[in-house]
């Protein structure tokens, strides 16, 4: 299909952005270059960018931070350091990098990859063998002015992250809470002037003892940063924007480095709901409001940290940033670290709990703003808010917008993941700042006519999709709901919201509720027929991969490991021309009659 016709149809349907969702590790490899882990920096990725260009104008990546040796989840990665597994080792064997990695070492890694014939990563294998490859590359690296400039420009965070790497060697574990040395645990969290002086001496001693390891860590970060910049330039040349992903979590390394800025004894999570009667105890640290802002509202040390991390993200990803769990930046649910995230055990919303004996000091909403009949975990509990209160709830969002502006972008470079719980303060901030949220059509509660995820209720200022990394592919979802009461309700909604050729409403409902392929196709049509200006599609949905990338609430190597096969060009992808043709028809006769020639081109 001619890409120009596809783009014409997308423009007719009012789509400004069409994004392909695929996390870094899931990128395919070029022939003979499968090292066990994908990366947007490889030749395979460049081939893929060329493949999608002209149809998709952006690629939504996952978080890019360094992950733990025992956990592949990108949502617990570092906030500043990049994941070393996103380095293109092949490039290190070329003259561009002075051939600092031997072809023999590289070829051995490719040959030994246990997942080379599977559409999955080999995380533990890659983690181990990349480390060895970097050791060889570092031993052969002669230094450069660019490396020195990189270290100087990023010293504020790079020095701490590199020192942590040294401490993992010193303490024989990369998880700092189990270190035996209380000094090492608190090097950046002194409680007195005397401790600060003592800890400074310890830092100096460590920097001397592990000077080579510290420099190697910085060198690896230099490699990935340099390659990231080249990838961004390549994508821009092909008119494809790379959108970053900022997780709500902080890694173990970040928690150690910035623990003085976190609210001691509290953690971030989710309240009890249909899926978890005890709530979700994520264990992520919570920024201390007293360390976030000064009394006059200006950013304090914590606020500056948050702004700086977003500035780095916008600077390196001019395509924008998706912010995971935007609720966590506006109206977070917190609980005491030793307890469950339940109301009965003292949990509550950090800024919306004026009645709480501890959290009340941080409350923005007052008792008079609350519905006394509603519990603290209810979304509509805060019933009234003044403009000044909304502004206070939005303080961190304002820092994010300021960060984007200072890097030459506007607020539309911010994509807010606002799925699921959306409290009134969050909704008020989103509306006041006209921020772009997300609508996931699998989440439609089909028995509720006003459901915000239903096609007829989706507005233009949003990103719409059938699923993300945490959802079943749309075909799997369709298989699970046909011939059920739920499926019947979905079928009725789709029949009411969309127009179909050559069939009565009853016939459409019958077909949608009994034919899973037709239902899955129509859910894709719904995206483009909606008023949303922005559409995203996850790689499993686009390439009809009948597998789940991540199942929330579960652990194991099956999560975060799914990968686009290297032979993706031979796979049967979504018939986008057909989907767009049906989307134009779905808008109704008055609309489709204007574009008869385009419909003919689309087949």
Strand order of the largest sheet: 9-6-3-2-1-12-11-10
Largest sheet: 8 strands, parallel
User: Unreliable runs, pLDDT <50, ≥5 residues?
Assistant: none
- Describe the global form: globular
* Quantity of strands, as a count: 12
| Rg on CA atoms, Å | 25 Å
Could you walk me through the main structural features you see in this protein, from its secondary elements to its overall organization?
This protein is of the alpha/beta class and 603 residues long. It has a domain of 178 residues. Helices cover 42% and strands 9% of the residues. The protein is built from 25 helices and twelve strands. Strands 9-6-3-2-1-12-11-10 form an eight-stranded parallel beta sheet. A four-stranded antiparallel beta sheet has the order 5-4-7-8. Helix 6 packs across helix 7 and helix 20 crosses helix 21. The radius of gyration is 25 Å and the shape is globular. The model has no long low-confidence stretch (mean pLDDT 97).
Which helices and strands, and how do they pair?
Blueprint: H1 3-12, E1 17-21, H2 43-52, E2 58-60, H3 89-92, H4 103-112, H5 123-140, H6 145-153, H7 155-170, H8 182-185, H9 193-209, H10 211-237, E3 241-246, H11 252-257, E4 262-270, E5 280-287, H12 289-292, H13 301-316, E6 321-323, H14 327-330, E7 333-336, E8 348-349, H15 387-393, H16 395-406, E9 414-416, H17 424-432, E10 437-440, E11 462-465, H18 474-481, H19 485-497, H20 505-514, H21 516-529, E12 534-538, H22 539-542, H23 576-586, H24 589-592, H25 596-602
Parallel strand pairs: 1-2, 1-12, 2-3, 3-6, 6-9, 10-11, 11-12
Antiparallel strand pairs: 4-5, 4-7, 7-8
Helix pairs in contact: 1-23, 6-7, 7-10, 13-16, 18-21, 19-20, 20-21, 21-23
